[in-house]
Each structure stands twice: as C-alpha cells, then as structure tokens.
C-alpha cells in the first residue's frame, strides 16, 4: 500500500504538470516552458508507473494469500477468484474510460489516468477496516485476536470448531518460513512449484494479454475497421467480466482441474482455427473479408470466455492451495515473478512477432498452450475442498 500511495502522488503531480504543459499560446517563451514541463511530466509518469508496477506485484502475492487464509474451505475457490474479478473490473473500466467520447482523446487522456491515482488513496483508508488473517494470528500465538477476527469474518460466534482446525493445521506445520532457495531446492515442493509456475506462465503465454494490450491491432488484423474496433474492444471486457462472474460459481461446483484442463484443450483448437481464418482474411478479396472477420472475432470472444472461467482465476487460487504455510510466501513470489515476467515478454515482443509472421502468431500461443496442457493433464491434482496433506499425496 505505501508504494501505491507514492505512485498516486507522482501520478497527481504528473497530471498537474501536464495540464500546465497544455497551451495554445504561440509565444516562444511559453512554448519553451511547455516543452520543459512536458519532459518533467514524462519523467514523473515513468516514476509513478514504476511504483504502481512494484505495488501491483506485491498486491498479487499478498491479496491472494490473504483471501485464501480468510475463506472457509468450501468457498476457498470462490473467494480466491475475487482477486481476478477485481482485475477484470479494472480492465473493463480502463476500456470504458479510454473510449474517445469519454476520456480517450489527446487532450483528455491525462484525466482518464486520474482514477488510477485516486483508487490506491481510497484503498489505503479502507484497508484498515479489514480483519487480520486468523491463520496468521494463530501462527503468531495470538489466539484471542484470531478468535475475534474469525467471528468478524464469519459474522457468527460459532467459530470454535474452525479455530481448532486452524490451530491443529498450524501445529502440524513447521514454524520457520522457508526462503526461495530452499523451496527451489527441496524435492518436497518440486511438483507444487512446477505446476504453479506453469499455470502462471500459461496464463500470460496463452495470448490473453496480447488481446487486451493490442486488441485494436488484433481486431484490425481480423478485418474490423474504425468504430467497430472500439466496440470490439469493449465487447472483450464485458464478456470477460460476465464469464469471470460465472467462474465464481463453477470453481466450487466443478473444481479447479476440469476448469483448467478442458478449456486448455478447446483453446488449442480455437488458436488453430483463428490462425486459419486470419490468414484467409488477409488473402481474400474485400467482399469475403467481412464474413471471415466475423468468424475470427467469434473465435476471439470464445477464447476470452474459456480463459475467464479457468486460466483467469485458478492460477492464483491453486498456487495458494498447494504450498504449506511456511513455503507459501516463497512459492507465491516465484509464481508471481513468472506471471509478470511472461506478461513483460508478451508486451515487449507481441507486436514485432505480429509484424513478422502476422496471423501465424497464434500458432506460437497454441504451442505454449499444448505444452502446458500436456504437463498439467498428468501432474495437476484437484484441490477443491482438500487439505494440504490430501493434495500432496497426489505426487507421492
């Protein structure tokens, strides 16, 4: 939270300076001042972006762990998926604010970023109303506070059985937190770590960020033009939100494994089909492009639905469920590092790859998905409503 507050301050300063830079005065001195202000604004923008990125990475680890620790076992998947739901809502809000008729113009984009700075400031106040994790309090031998926190979370005084269960689980585990090197070198954590890393990697290497980062380019590649591209971008956000809401129910109804394995299998087919239709679109005359574009867009939207019900929420939930408490911080840190590193790779190399091989770029995503499907099919256990000891027996 401190990093988000610092980032917010830099963002607000950036907006203030940028507004000073905007001018219609042709006076040379004024223009020179405006250029200097622009350079300063850009510097502050990059600094704020650094702090926001740092804070986002930390929040991905801490918030998912917190949600896992405060949720009842029967709702662990649903509550844990709320992290992804918040991300999806943020994506949709960003898409709406970025529309040209709202704040997505050259002279209003800076105000569109103001909400990015305001939300952490609001969150820094609201966070003090949250109860502490009962599991963490038990680890710290603060039993009375753990009971109070559990009563607040469950809105009930009947918490003795659950508190005893938490105490028994914590007693059975070692007390000392393990570092990253220990988790990497221990055979006990080999498969929990490998499956978590693969899930977090394929969440990005499936191509989902390519769709949301460069959706305008992708819809243009699929054949859409002008204002239709904007509506296509908005449709991706709306469908992503609806499918994520459905996933909140499915994750406890069907479990984690089916929502990963079968959507991955279908995504392989979708990627192959999408490649075929985009390549055909590029080679066919104009009169045939519209029909091919529609099919391509349908494939993209189906892919988003499949992603939202599986690869969207489950990597965060699963990564919290397969590590014991003493290895969870290190395991989650490694998983989030891989997640964000793969996000960086997509953001950096997608456009050059698209320029080089055009529609065939989806075959690369297809290869990544196929490799992940093969490994997870054989090595990913079901974690729904299971204790850690039950999950670990899968790999023994």
From TrEMBL:
InterPro entries to which the protein is assigned, alphabetical: GLUT (IPR045263), MFS_dom (IPR020846), MFS_sugar_transport-like (IPR005828), MFS_trans_sf (IPR036259), Sugar/inositol_transpt (IPR003663), Sugar_transporter_CS (IPR005829)
GO molecular function terms noted in the UniProt entry: hexose transmembrane transporter activity
Superkingdom, taxonomy of origin: Eukaryota
Ranges where the Major facilitator superfamily (MFS) profile domain occurs: 1-384
Annotated localization: Membrane
Annotated Pfam families: Sugar_tr
Membrane topology designation: Multi-pass membrane protein
Residues that span the membrane, as ranges: 5-21, 41-64, 85-103, 109-130, 229-248, 260-280, 292-318, 330-353, 359-378
GO terms under cellular component: membrane
Keywords from the UniProt entry: Membrane, Transmembrane, Transmembrane helix, Transport
The keyword Transmembrane belongs to this UniProt entry's keyword annotation: yes
PANTHER family in UniProt: FACILITATED GLUCOSE TRANSPORTER PROTEIN 1, SOLUTE CARRIER FAMILY 2
Protein family membership: Belongs to the major facilitator superfamily. Sugar transporter (TC 2.A.1.1) family.
Protein name: Major facilitator superfamily (MFS) profile domain-containing protein
